[in-house]
Design goal:
alpha/beta; single chain; 7-stranded parallel sheet; 8 helices
């Protein structure tokens, strides 16, 4: 299936590894051009080089108020256009309610929430009809995940923001979507499993609770996200798509 991605230009944040990198890789494989971002200049440059000539790297921190405009400008300067953005940020530190400090909440709010809002707002001002804004969120949008208190507090708020933005931008032909990863085999998931006394037993128990009986791969997530970003999904907006092997209860 041709997703219509050839020569379209996207900004993908958090793209040096994990889900952001998997999505950037899939976009490039299908003919798109991407600006990939991360906080560390060296790893950003390496990620862009690995993706090839249709990728450019820009070191940026989502918490920096100037980052959004700089990333969109980089897309236009390097590739001559800007068609959409995938806003993917690393998860806040794990912990329970009693463990999370004010400083951790504030840092996560600046990066995970406000940084995402700023980039979405800047993208909305620049995109033309057919543009798309996508958020990588979490299954915690629907149900809290034990031990991820800060994420549980921030991700649902971003989902509400995304739906509000979808309603506002719909008349301009701009789509807004969310992608909700479940248990995907990334470094982040290995870190979370590793917090238990027996990581292998924890993973086995987690897989038993997934209808497909396994963790997803980053590429499987990337394919789903690339579809939502593509013109092939031109009538899909205002939705949150779980990519979780069927873990979410209900429809």
């Amino acid at each position: 299936m041709d997703l219509g991605l050839k020569d379209r230009v996207y900004v993908v944040t958090g793209a040096t590894r994990g889900l952001g990198n998997a999505t950037a890789r899939r976009l490039v494989a299908d003919g798109a051009k991407v600006v990939v971002t991360g906080r560390d200049e060296k790893t950003v440059a390496e990620a862009a080089a690995d993706l090839g000539p249709n990728a450019a790297g820009v070191a940026a921190d989502n918490a920096d108020p100037a980052a959004a405009d700089r990333l969109i400008a980089a897309a236009r300067e390097r590739f001559g256009g800007f068609d959409g953005v995938l806003i993917s940020v690393g998860g806040p530190p794990p912990g329970f309610v009693a463990d999370a400090t004010d400083e951790q909440w504030q840092a996560a709010f600046e990066t995970v929430f406000l940084g995402a809002v700023r980039l979405a707002r800047a993208a909305a001002a620049e995109l033309a009809e057919g543009g798309v804004i996508a958020f990588v969120l979490s299954g915690s949008v629907y149900e809290p995940i034990a031990g991820l208190t800060i994420s549980n507090g921030l991700r649902p708020g971003l989902a509400g923001f995304a739906k509000s933005l979808a309603d506002e931008l719909g008349p301009r032909g701009i789509r807004v979507v969310g992608v909700l990863p479940g248990r995907i085999a990334t470094d982040r998931m290995r870190q979370l499993d590793g917090l238990s006394p027996d990581p292998e037993a924890t993973r086995a128990a987690n897989e038993a609770g997934i209808p497909l009986r396994r963790y997803g791969t980053p590429d499987e997530f990337g394919r789903a996200a690339a579809f939502l970003l593509s013109p092939a999904a031109s009538y899909v907006t205002g939705v949150m798509l779980p990519v979780d092997g069927g873990s979410r209860s209900g429809f």
